[in-house]
Amino acid sequence: MVDRQRAAVASLLDDLSEEEARARLVPSLTTVLGLVKHATFVEQVWFHSRVAGVPRAELGIPETVDESFALTDDDTVASVRAAYADACDRSRAIAAEHGLDEEYPWHHGPVSMRFVLAHLVAELARHAGHGDILVEQLRARRG
Predict the structure, then answer these.
(1) In this structure, are residues 48 and 90 in contact, taking their beta carbons and an 8 Å threshold?
(2) Which residues of 52-71 are buried (b: 16+ CB within 10 A; e: fewer)?
(3) What is the pLDDT of residue 63?
(4) If we measure between CA atoms, which residue out of 10, 16, 90 comes closest to residue 54?
(5) Are 117 and 125 in contact (CB under 8 A)?
(6) Which Pfam families does this entry report, sorted A to Z (predicted)?
(7) DSSP per residue over 54-105, as a string?
(8) Which of 2, 12, 38, 109 has an alpha carbon 20 to 30 Å from 130's alpha carbon atom?
(9) Is the pLDDT assigned to residue 24 strictly greater than 90?
């Protein structure tokens, strides 16, 4: 189920121009490209940092969730898609090394790999849904 949601998030960028992928249709920083960039952050926070124990600073990821949606001039459909694919590949490798009942620290108390996987399904599905609505609006603009 996690991989199904990962694929749904990645597919948001299919058939979008660079301009469309960056278009802000809501007051927040949420864009289709930003959603996929945020999903990369989610993979890194939960698997690369929390499960594998690599400090966020060493991973070079933002400190806050809001920052994870922010785009730079270097962010393109291709670069964000590649970063997301790489993060997902690394997350799969990390998850494969751990048992479902293993626990990891979290500010609300320890969480198991089961929790991490369930959380990813929920979060990625939510963002894929957000993205679907944005993509629908962008395609409608094409006329």
Answers:
(1) yes
(2) beeeeeeeebbeeeeebbeb
(3) 87
(4) 90
(5) no
(6) MST (PF04978)
(7) --HHHHT--SSTGGGG---TT--HHHHHHHHHHHHHHHHHHHHTS-TT-EE-
(8) 109
(9) yes
At residue 21, the pLDDT reads 98
Q: Check: CB of residue 14 under 8 Å from CB of residue 136.
A: no
The 3-state DSSP class for residue 50 equals helix
Cα-only R_g, the chain? 15
Q: How do residues 26-47 score in pLDDT, each as one tens digit?
A: 999 899 999 999 999 999 999 9
Domains of the chain listed by start with CATH number: 2-141 (1.20.120.450)
Specify the amino acid at residue 71.
Answer: L
Q: Where are the beta strands (DSSP E) in 95-139?
A: 103-104, 111-112
Q: Centre a 10 Å sphere on the Cβ of residue 51 and count the other Cβ atoms it contains.
A: 19
Backbone dihedral angles phi then psi of residue 103, each to the nearest 5 degrees: -115, 155
- In the chain, the amino acid numbered 91 is S
pLDDT at 143 over 90: no
Average pLDDT of every residue of the chain = 96
